[in-house]
Amino acid sequence: MASGSKRTKSLRALFGQIPDNDEILNILFDLTTQTDRTAAIVGGAILEDRLRRSIALYLRTDLTDDDQSSLFEDRGPLTDFDAKIRIAYCLGMLSRENKQDFDHIRRIRNGFAHSIPHHDFEAVGIRTICEDLWIINHNKFVNQTQISTFMGTKALYILAIGLYHWMLTIHQPPLAVSDIIAAHLLPPSP
């Protein structure tokens, strides 16, 4: 029989599998047909995971998996979505408007995850927040009114997650000072 520690590691490995971008796109499309609770929770989890992976790009390249785990797992300082959002904002990965959107998405996700009564995206408070998401209202490719009218508020939420996922996927951190110095050093003489 496997020990508790082995079972925990096995579960972490199973749930820690990271879908590629095509799979994420398929999951996001699928969320439009799922319950509002499922869409809110899974959509928020997708965005939180992408944010974690983007933050990890700012970390030292010589960190071990255990070093990263000590930050992002168990009781590490970047375990929860809120902490990831705050550090991403402080690192310059998110603008003030982006941070506000991420906070709204986090609150919606947490509300659906931790509320026993049934809620949906058409509830006035949730609908208003989704319609006011900065990335939806400041994107020349998105007609918020048409999406909201024909597909519902859940589609706005999922679209915002997709747009932010894409934004974080293409985001690259600035070079570290040590990398800049190393690039300008002459190679050692033979």
What does this structure look like?
The chain has 190 residues and is an all-alpha fold. It has one domain (24-169): Nucleotidyltransferases  domain 2 (Four Helix Bundle (Hemerythrin (Met), subunit A)). Helices cover 67% and strands 0% of the residues. It has helices at residues 4-15, 21-31, 36-56, 65-72, 81-90, 96-114, 124-131, 134-137, 144-151, 153-170, 177-184. Helix 5 packs antiparallel against helix 6 (96-114). The radius of gyration is 19 Å and the shape is globular. The protein starts with a helix and ends in a 6-residue tail after the last helix.
Summarize the structure.
The protein is mainly α.
Distance between the termini: 58 Å
Average per-residue pLDDT, rounded, comes to 85
- The percent range for strand residues is under 5%
Question: How many separate domains?
Answer: 1
Portion in helices? 55-70%
Q: Characterize the main sheet.
A: none
Count of strand segments: 0
Going by CATH, the homologous superfamily would be Nucleotidyltransferases  domain 2
**Helical stretch tally:** 11
Oligomer: single chain
> What's the CATH C level?
Mainly Alpha
CATH architecture: Up-down Bundle
- Rounded Rg: 19 Å
What class would the helix/strand composition place it in?
mainly alpha
Shape: globular
Instruction: Enter the CATH topology name.
Output: Four Helix Bundle (Hemerythrin (Met), subunit A)
What is the N-to-C succession of helices and strands? HHHHHHHHHHH
| Uncertain spans | none
